[in-house]
TrEMBL record:
The active site is at residues 338, 428. InterPro entries: Class_I_gatase-like (IPR029062), CobQ/CobB/MinD/ParA_Nub-bd_dom (IPR002586), CobQ_GATase1 (IPR033949), CobQ_N (IPR047045), CobQ_synth (IPR004459), GATase_3 (IPR011698), P-loop_NTPase (IPR027417). Keywords: Cobalamin biosynthesis, Glutamine amidotransferase. GO terms for molecular function: ABC-type vitamin B12 transporter activity; catalytic activity. Catalyzes amidations at positions B, D, E, and G on adenosylcobyrinic A,C-diamide. NH(2) groups are provided by glutamine, and one molecule of ATP is hydrogenolyzed for each amidation. Pathway: Cofactor biosynthesis; adenosylcobalamin biosynthesis. Residues 6-232 form the CobQ/CobB/MinD/ParA nucleotide binding domain. This is Cobyric acid synthase. One of its GO terms (biological process) is cobalamin biosynthetic process. It comes from Nocardia aurantia. PANTHER family: COBYRIC ACID SYNTHASE, DETHIOBIOTIN SYNTHETASE. CDD domains: CobQ_N, GATase1_CobQ. Belongs to the CobB/CobQ family. CobQ subfamily. PROSITE patterns: GATASE_COBBQ, GATASE_TYPE_1.
Length: 504
């Protein structure tokens, strides 16, 4: 089997990432040498690859679905939004510029060539490459500069599978309209549809799908059912809405629950750090933006941020900063990760990310941070209280001074700060170290007075992730016409597909 496919979506968050992961896992289980590819991603959820760069977290998950280590080859262009108008531009894993929409155009010719070369290299090495689009291919105002949707499909002659999320409503119109608004040559590559997140009796949807085929000449290859079992390694922060639970809380092993309030920062980065906690029975994790929701939480997590100084000001403006100070005085647990760790300190000197200069931190840790122009991007490993840990770092902020003891001893040296029940670290992914997480949660429970809380001894975050990938593959195999899908990958877009016209 040899070929390639582009999975596009009618909207952002339509399910492109999970569909690509599911197809990759299905093919890998069949012994196909398959790789994922997303030409251009926009996300603040990233991971550090084995080759020392950073890529979108969804592509790291897709690589694991293929049985591969994450690589910058799978996501050569990454945009990390720091504000509504400007994003950090990461090319082949390295941050090279901060750009707005207009000055991004000056990079487009070089990026288009880079993307084409990378995809060609992957196709030469692997049997199959499953590509993921970005946003929607119907963003015709951006067609001339498109690297990831129809621009990529045209350059590489890729058949396109269009995914629509029925949860949003109007999915049949979304699918029809997406095709119809495209130029005729782009329409010729849209080869089929896939419905995502369907609830109920699929027979009630069948007449609509039949009519969609009549109108467009394109089949619907499958209807994937909704399941709330798929939640780990989210593509971006769209799902981290206020008051939303993380995962599916399971009953506790002991008699007490442990409740976790994860603060949903406006420019949250690597929000997936808290997912390891949500894997544990008896741990209920919820995103919050209201200081009142911190009052009854056993643990508050202050996650990473792509705009640390701006999000720190938001904490003060919303009253969350005052609520955190009250928790610290009462000796109640707080964890800060990366940008959240930096906010917990006394002083931030930032002439790089915000240009704000010296800014007072929350003062809950005796810590001074300075932002450096060079970005720290690395994997790291070591131990905490003799327990092996590993993770990765992605940050501009560096510790100038710390009067609090470190609690992690990594290959690079001491890391993090601790004061009573307040912990902070730059290390993302720390809580995925299962033995460490269990030991640390016992400390948190003791500090919170949850004497009846007990940790399970058999929870593996890697195992949960693998099970979700297998579930995705199972859903693809059961609910998608895989014979048609295989033919599409191998043979490309069918000849002479109907061209739709938009009425006037």
């Amino acid at each position: 089997m040899r070929g390639a496919l582009l999975v596009a979506g009618t909207t952002s968050d339509a399910g492109k990432s999970v569909v690509v992961a599911g197809i990759c896992r299905m093919l890998a289980r069949q012994g196909v040498r398959v790789a994922p590819f997303k030409a251009q991603n926009m996300s603040n959820n990233s991971v550090v690859t084995l080759d020392g760069g950073e890529i979108g977290r969804a592509q790291a998950l897709q690589a694991r679905a293929c049985g591969l280590e994450p690589s910058v080859r799978f996501n050569p262009v990454l945009l990390k939004p720091g504000s509504d108008r400007r994003s950090q531009l990461v090319v082949r894993g390295t941050a090279i510029d901060t750009v707005g929409a207009r000055d991004y155009f000056r990079h487009r010719t070089r990026l288009r060539e880079l993307v084409a070369d990378e995809l060609a290299s992957l196709r030469a090495e692997f049997d199959v490459v499953i590509c993921e689009g970005a946003g929607s291919p119907a963003e015709i105002n951006l067609r001339d500069t498109d690297l990831a949707n129809m621009g990529l499909a045209q350059a590489a002659r890729l058949p396109v599978l269009l995914v629509g999320d029925i949860d949003r409503g109007g999915v049949l119109a979304h699918l029809f309209g997406t095709v119809a608004i495209l130029e005729p040559e782009d329409q010729q590559l849209i080869s089929g549809f896939l419905i995502n997140k369907f609830r109920g009796d699929v027979e009630l949807l069948t007449p609509g799908l039949d009519r969609l085929t009549e109108l467009t000449g394109r089949p619907t290859l499958g209807v994937l059912p909704y399941t709330d079992e798929l939640w780990i390694d989210a593509e971006d922060s769209l799902g981290t809405v206020a008051d939303a639970p993380v995962g599916r809380p399971r009953p506790p092993v002991g008699t007490d629950w442990l409740t976790v309030a994860a603060i949903r920062l406006p420019r949250i980065s690597n929000s997936t750090d808290v997912e390891a906690l949500a894997c544990e029975p008896g741990v209920a994790v919820r995103w919050v933006t209201d200081p009142s929701r911190l009052a009854d939480a056993d643990l508050v997590v202050l996650p990473g941020s792509k705009s640390t100084v701006s999000d720190l000001e938001w904490l003060r403006r919303t009253g969350i900063a005052a609520a955190l100070a009250d928790r610290a005085k009462a000796g109640r647990p707080i964890l800060g990760v990366c940008g959240g760790y930096q906010m917990l300190g006394r002083r931030i000197l930032d002439r790089v990310e915000s240009g704000a200069g010296a800014v007072a931190g929350l003062g809950l840790l005796d810590l001074d941070i300075e932002f450096a122009a060079a970005k720290t991007v690395c994997r790291n490993a070591g131990a905490a209280a003799g327990i092996p840990v590993r993770g990765y770092e992605i940050h501009h902020g560096r510790v100038l001074r710390s009067g609090d003891p470190s609690w992690l001893r990594l290959e690079s040296g001491p890391e993090g700060s601790v004061r009573e029940a307040i912990w902070g670290t730059h290390l993302h992914g720390l809580l995925e170290s299962d033995d460490f997480r269990r030991a640390w949660l016992r400390q948190v429970a003791a500090a919170a007075g949850r004497t009846g809380f007990a940790v399970a001894e058999d929870v593996s975050v890697a195992g949960v992730r693998a099970a979700q990938l297998d579930l995705l593959a199972d859903l693809i195999e059961k609910h998608v016409d895989t014979d048609r899908l295989t033919r599409l990958i191998e043979s490309g877009a069918p000849d002479r597909l109907p061209t739709l016209t938009v009425g006037h």
